[in-house]
Amino acid sequence: MSKTFTKTTRLAAWFCLPLVSGMVAAQPAPMAGLRFIDHRQQPLTAQTLRGKPVLLHFVFTGCSSTCPPQIHELVAMRAALPASARAQLQLVSVTVDPLADTPQALARFAARLGADQPGWRFVTGAPAQVQQFTDRMAAFDLRRTPQPTPADHRTALWLYDASGALVQRYGGWPVDHARLVAEITQLAQARQTASGPRHPHNDIPHAAATTAAASLP
């Protein structure tokens, strides 16, 4: 087994919660125990994301720099996915400004950017819940900005497979269309076939050394 795969396997373990049976939870663990609401006023929890690939990032409606162009790029990336992969992917855009970003504000934001699409959820929640999640995800670099504002959030994109394991953390800007399309498509195909010893982690290149995930609780 390669050192890269071994390191990535350890990394994925940070994002899986053990069940009584010894299996792992089929959703991103950093969201465990938290409850959000999306721009359609539908609840979102870790359980909601069970069984499908998830691409997650952080935004806020008052952003005038990176958020709008990143979302436009993700709209284009989503459109480039094969229909089967597009149907499986769950895009989750989490606000870092829950006091301002009500579901109604997020709905207007999503509509203005052409992102009010099936399988894409702009989410907010109680400030304490959102802060707990941003802390778990290291959404802010507190070493550089000890008292961050919403504009200081990371632009990273986190991709999870259908089992809830972290596959990749991307720099996020500029959006790497080709790589995202290829890797999300592989995850969707692996979920559909789900046979034999092959695992999507064996096929997708990882950048474990560049991710903040290993520092998460």
Automatic annotation (TrEMBL):
Cu cation binds at residues 63, 67, 153. The keyword Disulfide bond applies. GO terms for molecular function: metal ion binding. The keyword Signal applies. Residues 207-217 have a biased composition (Low complexity). Residues 1-26 form the signal peptide. Coiled coil: none annotated. InterPro entries: SCO1/SenC, Thioredoxin-like_sf, Thioredoxin_domain. Disulfide bonds join 63-67. Residues 23-193 form the Thioredoxin domain. Residues 191-217 are annotated as: Disordered. Keywords: Copper, Disulfide bond, Metal-binding, Signal. CDD domains: SCO. PANTHER family: ELECTRON TRANSPORT PROTIN SCO1/SENC FAMILY MEMBER, LINALOOL DEHYDRATASE_ISOMERASE DOMAIN-CONTAINING PROTEIN. Belongs to the SCO1/2 family. This is Cytochrome oxidase Cu insertion factor, SCO1/SenC/PrrC family. The lineage of its organism: Bacteria, Pseudomonadati, Pseudomonadota, Betaproteobacteria, Burkholderiales.
